[in-house]
Amino acid sequence: MSKIKNIGILTAGGDCGGLNAVVRGAARMADHMGVDAYIIHHGYAGLYNLVDTDHLVKLDESRVDHVLSFFAGSEAGHSRVKISKIQDPNKYLRILEGLKKFDIGGLVISGGDDTGSVMVDLAEHGFPCVHAPKTMDLDLQTYSVGGDSSANKIANFVQDIKTTGRTHNRIMIVEVFGRYTGHTAFRGGIGADADCILIPEIPVDFDEVYEHMKRYYMRRIIESDVKSGTYTIVVAEGMTDVSGKYIVDEDAGIDAFGHKKLFGAAKYVHKQLEDRMKEDAEIKKFLRENGMYVPGQFEYPEIREVVPGHLVRSGGTSAFDVSFGKQIGAASVILLLHGITGVTVYEVSGAEIKYMPTREAIKRKLVDLDMVSFYEQLDVCFGRKSVSFDPIFTEVFPENINRYY
Ligand code: F6P
Q1: Which residue out of 137, 149, 154 has the highest number of ligand 1 atoms within 8 Å of its CB and is therefore the one to mutate?
Q2: Does residue 195 carry a catalytic annotation?
């Protein structure tokens, strides 16, 4: 069995739900396997500075009691630091010295693609480490803790925004995190019956969005006995325009991994729709016929955007993420103590611990376009002409399936 006496637990990148469950699961499993677990504070910044640290928090039975899985964020703290880019020629040696100082023989590292890429680098430099996948963006090859919690939050926000939208007959746009993929916008939007979901995977044709919006918005108001209606759009921050270009506010800056901070998608959608409404005589006629038109003050419906930002990854954690987080945290320790390194745990299924090289796990996964066309058949607008859905049938126990033709 392993010679490791102590392990370090480190969380990095954007925080989200489920990280404390990873920490708790890893610490409890370490304890069970006779190994001490310590928090490496502040992600990779803490790892780099470990050698100058006086004291590490030991996750013994009593301390772990205070790591509450339900709370999002991480008891271990985070940073966005790319080790290979640190301007210090002795950085890997410095990390080694830090680990030696506390006799830490292996690391459980929880994070997304950037964190995973640093972990691959560390593993290649000989540091034993196992990756517990975490990102609200859900853009890793496998499920990552935090995705379900964020999608639930988004669904709640979008559902809530409809009450004010309906009261003022406004078109409401909610812009959500997700970086270069639309997984959480997609799941959250579907979860809240959003009318339109705009994701980076589909360059948006705003004429399509406009026609869909008009049809739903006008019908709802016409059919309502109190003339009330709204239309909700969820837009992923990484939405692209019809030419495939990201909508970025150049002033927002870039992070340590060279990613442009994305911001402004909702504003862009707002302008696109408003420009079309101002020119649309049918809209004016509709407002007049429904007693809403006021010259100079209400000549076209209002559009409002809301950007919940960090709220979608704050607060609480879903029960699904708590259990998944505990599983991958604990399984990471088992792998580490069995001498396995440079891998990502992606599932614990009964007695089976499933893992893959982290290099593979961090390859970007996009929203499945077949699932998009599936929901297009249910008339959710994705900013393009609906694409037909061609089902493939997979039967389990075909002998027990009855057909009526
Ligand atoms: O990667 C997770 C994420 O929440 C992205 O969706 C978002 O673009 C980014 O982090 C924001 O990061 P920060 O909190 O560092 O601004």
Answers
A1: 137
A2: no
Note the pTM of the prediction, 2 decimals: 0.95
Q: How far apart are the first and last CA of the chain?
A: 60
Ligand 1 centre distance from Cα of residue 19 (Å): 15
Sheet with 104-111, side-by-side order of all strands: 36-39, 6-11, 104-111, 129-133, 343-349, 352-357
H or E segment at 348?
strand 343-349
- 119-137 residue pLDDT tens: 999 999 999 999 999 999 9
* Nearest-5° Cα angle at 258, 197 to 151: 30
**How many CB atoms sit inside 10 A of residue 193's CB?**
13
User: Domain 6-145+317-361 belongs to what architecture?
Assistant: 3-Layer(aba) Sandwich (3.40)
Backbone φ and ψ of 33, nearest 5° = -95, 10
CA of 233 to the centre of ligand 1 (A): 21
DSSP 69: T
Q: Give the mean pLDDT of 101-109.
A: 98
Residue nearest to atom 13 of ligand 1 (CA): 14
Q: For ligand 1, what atom is nearest to the CA of residue 255?
A: 15
Cβ atoms of 247 and 239 within 8 Å: the answer is yes
Cα dihedral 96, 101, 106, 112 sign = negative
Query: What is the whole-number distance in angstroms between the Cα of residue 119 and the centre of ligand 1?
Result: 19
pLDDT, tens digit, for every residue of 157-184?
A: 999 999 999 999 999 999 999 999 999 9
Cβ contacts of residue 155 below 8 Å, gap of 6+? 187, 188, 189, 191, 192
Q: What atom in ligand 1 is closest to the CA of residue 237?
A: 8
Q: Quick count: other Cβ atoms within 10 Å of Cβ 90?
A: 10
Domain with CATH 3.40.50.450 in the chain: 6-145+317-361
Q: How far is CA 260 from CA 40, 185, 190, 204, 254, in A?
A: 28, 19, 27, 20, 4
Superfamily of domain 152-312: Phosphofructokinase domain (3.40.50.460)
CB-based contact 58:362 (threshold 8 Å): no
- Residue 178 CA to ligand 1 center (angstroms) comes to 7
Question: Please, where in the chain does CATH 3.40.50.460 lie?
Answer: 152-312
Kindly report the average pLDDT of the chain as a whole number. 95
Cα separation, 202 vs 213, whole angstroms: 18
The CB of 178 under 6 Å from ligand 1? The reply is yes
Computed from CA positions of residues 245, 249, 252, 253, in that sequence, does the dihedral angle turn out positive or negative? Answer: positive
Which has the closest alpha carbon to 241: 212, 273, 279, 268?
268
